[in-house]
Amino acid sequence: MSAAATAPMVRLRLEEVDDLTFRALIASGVSPVNARSVTASVVAAETEGVHSHGLARLPTYCAHAKVGKIDGAAAPALSRPRPGLVLVDARDGFAHPAIDLGLPELIAAAREQGIAALAVTNSYNCGVVGYHVERIAQAELVALGFVNAPASIAPVGGTRAVFGTNPVAFAVPRVAETPLVLDQSSSVVAKSEIMVHQQRGAPIPLGWALDREGQPTEDAKAALEGGTMVPAGGHKGAGLALMVELMAAWLTGANLSIDASSFADNSGGSPRTGQFFIAIDPGPVAGPEAGARLGRLCEAIAGQEGARLPGQRRAAARLRTAGEGVMIPKPLHERLTAIAIATPA
């Protein structure tokens, strides 16, 4: 059953996505500077067809700002504990403005020293991780990003969730091309994709998640309420989730996934999760022919019938949405419009 057949849809231009997002956040008590940072991420997600981190997330962002689970007016604080290390405390606020604050310092340090890292702590959902590493790659640096999330994946052989969907992202600059971006969850699919299916009244494919009894389910609600996510590739996905947990949570001093409150409901305090980014200047080590060699590798992949480079679907979505806009469920549009016209508390 298609999503289009299960819920009426509304078409929005990207300018309307921007306006609606910003107004909804401001009406929810988010400061203008923080609202602009989050809005840019939401618009980028919708532009690339990653709806699970676009407007579908916005009602939760707004609700959490209203109840204080996120401090919408938080001013992140930056420090430099070592020349190659940048630390930003999000102070229980959105991750987006904290990352925005740290990226210029990270890029400058990587250019000066060849490699540098940015640790963000005490933060919240950062949206699409690929969005952030791509910005680093646009500065002609290789980028790695690690993000932890509230626990939703059980270790292989276990039954209790320990890891979040814990995505990892990679980006590399290319000559006369947009950066090559790889962004993937440690689970078969990001949990937010299940939320999108729930909003659209659509079932989820078997193999994405288990219900609270540990049985495979097609019911998005059952997967979100007490269920667990299936790790991608079994042991490999669980191992990746552990690696991300160590990089994004343990190394940044943020909450472990088992200690982070849910991104999905209003209970608990700030999740205080973490993000960790590494930036590398490829020039000194990759050599003068680096661009040509990367181009040859990309052609060896994209030149095969049926094969594609990571990010090709998003690139196609950018072209499509630039002219056609995006489609969202009508109930979601009505809900966001109501939030946007409400008087801030």
Quick summary of this structure?
With 345 residues, the protein is α+β, with helices and mostly antiparallel strands.
Ordered list of secondary-structure elements with their pairings:
Layout: H1 3-6, E1 9-12, H2 14-27, H3 32-47, H4 58-67, E2 77-82, E3 85-89, H5 95-113, E4 115-123, H6 129-137, E5 142-147, E6 168-174, E7 177-184, H7 191-199, E8 209-210, H8 220-224, E9 228-229, H9 235-250, E10 273-280, H10 283-286, H11 290-302, H12 312-324, E11 326-329, H13 330-341
Labels describing this entry:
345 residues; two-stranded antiparallel ribbon; Ribosomal Protein S8, Chain: A, domain 1; 13 helices; alpha+beta
> What is the CATH C level class, in words?
Alpha Beta
Helix fraction, binned, reads 40-55%
- Give the biggest beta sheet: 7 strands, mixed
Mean pLDDT: 90
Q: What class do helices, strands and sheet pairing give?
A: alpha+beta
Describe this structure in words.
With 345 residues, the protein is an alpha+beta fold. It has a single domain, classed as Malate/L-lactate/L-sulpholactate dehydrogenase, NADPH binding domain (Ribosomal Protein S8, Chain: A, domain 1, 2-Layer Sandwich), CATH 3.30.1370. It is 42% helix and 18% strand. The chain contains 13 helices and 11 strands. A 7-stranded mixed β-sheet has the order 2-3-4-10-5-6-7, sandwiched between helices. The protein has a two-stranded antiparallel ribbon with strand order 1-11. A two-stranded antiparallel ribbon has the order 8-9. A hairpin with a 2-residue loop joins strand 2 and strand 3. Helix 2 runs antiparallel to helix 3, helix 2 packs parallel to helix 4 and helix 2 packs across helix 13. The longest helix has 19 residues. The protein is globular. 49% of the residues are buried. The mean pLDDT is 90.
